[in-house]
Amino acid sequence: MRNHAFIYSEDMLKYKFSDDHPFNHLRLQLTKSLLEAEDALQPDDFVTPRMASDEEIALVHDQAYIEAVKKAGRGELSPGLANNFGLGTEDTPMFHNMHEAAALLVGGTLSAVDEVMEGRATHALNLGGGLHHGFRGKASGFCIYNDSSIAIEYLRKVYGMRVLYIDTDAHHGDGVQWAFYEDPDVCTLSIHETGRYLFPGTGAVNEKGNGQGFGFSINVPVDAFTEDHSFLEVYEAAIWEVAEFFKPDIILTQNGADAHYYDPLTHLSASIEFFREVPRIAHEVAHDFCDGRWVAVGGGGYDHWRVVPRAWSLLWLEMSDQRHIAEGSLPETWLEAWKDQSPIPLPTFWTDPADLYPPIPRKPEITEKNKKSLDKALFHIRNEKNR
Amino acid sequence: MLIEEIMHKDVAYLTAENTIEQAMNVMHERKIRHVPIVNDKHELIAIVSDRDIRDASPSIFHADEHLEDLQKPLSSIMKTNVVTTGPLDFVEDAASTLYEHDISSLPVTEDDVLVGMITETDILHTLVKLTGAHQPSSQIEIRVPNISGQLADVAALFKANNKNVTSVLVYPCEDPEYKILVFRVQTMDPRRIIETLESSGYEVMWPRMPGMSP
Ligand SMILES: [Zn+2]
């Protein structure tokens, strides 16, 4: 049995709102191309994503919404109706065959789940997924169908798994959180830039779940301009304590790459090192608690030239035990292949320069504040443990 | 939003003849901190809070002493000057009433008859909804000169940019020459609207655009 699966198809690039929309799945091709240039992807690693069926999408989404998305993709949905479903907005414009494009991303995450649950791989990666803002009956924040919510419900229904969802996108994983807010068999952990200003505005420490699900939604908002050290300190403590508390059967990680300093939509100050460490720790958790069962998806990431290809390659290199590759210069062949298309100079090293950004003036305050958020977020878990 | 839309209608109440012990039990069972007291016409005549009970019977913390205190009628401790609100009052007004009187709950009466109760938490919850903060959105704060017409001018820019505004708040600035407009906007990408606002001469307080030092 091979240890890891890479879900990929060129058709995933058809999830495209417009040429100048910030969400651009060219990221997938750039990442695959970088990994191939490093000889880190073998033919045997590839799994072609399947299309999610309507029944599978309906595990989470309303039938009326699915019909609306189908109509929108055929140009048959009126602007007024579209608005009720969050479609036809600047964030989520309607485009040709949008249902098929969105259903393939969902199918990709389900394919990743099947690889792991049917024993063909220990870890599986669908970089096309991670659309964590999608709601039951409404598109939001560039997301049409919520592949992660669907995959989690699928893991519950088909395999009876207890799922720990870990979201390190710079934005709060609101769609997934609300889908399982009352479910004690699904635990969601989201670490994100505070919603004080940033979309979607939720993800405060006091959002902890409801009813039976109380205590199984964990949110650690971090301050704007948070850097690697503080971010990772909070992440590492949270993921271990939550895993210990929840004892998952499988982990699903959302690996948005928009916490990087270069990201145009957010205000965090992570460097590429952050994206090396996040999967390294998730990988350990998967082996310590879940016999290695780990499904990973992509997510946000809006500097698709300088940040996302490296960040997501690091994720795959971690999953496939090829960390040593990510050192020194990026391969010449990759730089040559893309430099003419990139509007900005491409990075030439796997790591970021030491002077990536000017020193952050309020660093100690930010670090202290993040620690306090962590303490509040984990209060009920630590309380339980000490009883 | 009106009080009657958010008030609790199934209210636990007692009469002046009920005992302190009964009030304690009701508070415990219903997880409430205030019990309204009514007469035989169901008119509100007083209120008893957990604090009134504690102040009147400190011995309740010593289980075996002064048990007779608990059998005293509520008329001995209840507060008769009750601040109330009406079912057709605005939630915002009830919020300022709570604030002015430094209290945490309000009985709702109609012609003196008790028809509901409302707590600080209910009101806070409603205010959060009124600010639009529960809908996925970005927040944009703009400092504008304190002269009339500014809100309309800024709102027109949002409209021209095809951005859906879920709520607007206006609050005073430390500098009385200015005020702050707070918009919640249904978008994950506010870059263009911020650019438009800035190029129209408005000062956007945050989020700062990347590349600028914080
Ligand atoms: Zn994001």
UniProtKB/TrEMBL annotation, chain A:
<dbReference type="GO" id="GO:0045150">
    <property type="term" value="P:acetoin catabolic process"/>
</dbReference>
<comment type="pathway">
    <text>Ketone degradation; acetoin degradation.</text>
</comment>
<dbReference type="GO" id="GO:0040029">
    <property type="term" value="P:epigenetic regulation of gene expression"/>
</dbReference>
<dbReference type="InterPro" id="IPR023801">
    <property type="entry name" value="His_deacetylse_dom"/>
</dbReference>
<dbReference type="InterPro" id="IPR000286">
    <property type="entry name" value="HDACs"/>
</dbReference>
<dbReference type="GO" id="GO:0004407">
    <property type="term" value="F:histone deacetylase activity"/>
</dbReference>
<comment type="similarity">
    <text>Belongs to the histone deacetylase family.</text>
</comment>
<dbReference type="Pfam" id="PF00850">
    <property type="entry name" value="Hist_deacetyl"/>
</dbReference>
<dbReference type="InterPro" id="IPR037138">
    <property type="entry name" value="His_deacetylse_dom_sf"/>
</dbReference>
<feature type="domain" description="Histone deacetylase">
    <location>
        <begin position="21"/>
        <end position="316"/>
    </location>
</feature>
<protein>
    <recommendedName>
        <fullName>Acetoin utilization protein AcuC</fullName>
    </recommendedName>
</protein>
<dbReference type="InterPro" id="IPR003085">
    <property type="entry name" value="AcuC"/>
</dbReference>
<dbReference type="InterPro" id="IPR023696">
    <property type="entry name" value="Ureohydrolase_dom_sf"/>
</dbReference>
<keyword id="KW-0006">Acetoin catabolism</keyword>
TrEMBL record, chain B:
<feature type="domain" description="ACT">
    <location>
        <begin position="139"/>
        <end position="212"/>
    </location>
</feature>
<protein>
    <submittedName>
        <fullName>Acetoin utilization protein AcuB</fullName>
    </submittedName>
</protein>
<dbReference type="InterPro" id="IPR045865">
    <property type="entry name" value="ACT-like_dom_sf"/>
</dbReference>
<dbReference type="InterPro" id="IPR000644">
    <property type="entry name" value="CBS_dom"/>
</dbReference>
<feature type="domain" description="CBS">
    <location>
        <begin position="7"/>
        <end position="65"/>
    </location>
</feature>
<dbReference type="Pfam" id="PF00571">
    <property type="entry name" value="CBS"/>
</dbReference>
<dbReference type="InterPro" id="IPR046342">
    <property type="entry name" value="CBS_dom_sf"/>
</dbReference>
<dbReference type="InterPro" id="IPR051257">
    <property type="entry name" value="Diverse_CBS-Domain"/>
</dbReference>
<feature type="domain" description="CBS">
    <location>
        <begin position="78"/>
        <end position="137"/>
    </location>
</feature>
<dbReference type="InterPro" id="IPR002912">
    <property type="entry name" value="ACT_dom"/>
</dbReference>
<keyword id="KW-0129">CBS domain</keyword>
